[in-house]
Amino acid sequence: MFQQTSRDPALAMAYVYPREMRATRDLLRRRCHFTRKRAELFTHIQNTASQYVLPALGKIAFHGNRIGLAEHFPDPAVRKSIETNLALIDHYDRVLKALELHLAQTAITVITRRSAARAYRRSP
Question: Is the whole model's pTM more than 0.90, yes or no?
């Protein structure tokens, strides 16, 4: 049975990252983790509004739509919970922006190095 599945062409081969790119791969994984946590906070806010039978909040992923959002919740404890979620979302926004800038710069550096190496190998 195993031999049959191991010869299956639909099974993807594993990709081994080059040593110099492994830290970048780990950074991409962390970015994905942070993005998911941020999405969980948005989901919690939307679910809380639904539980308290409040009107739809709209697209709160946009920063402009989050201004004054906590005031929609009449209960002080719930409002504090929403304010905490919004503070964490703002923090994740800053962290993710810095991470994405770093990853873009890293990608540009790697592409530049690779094209320089190719040009060097082609020269006589």
Answer: no
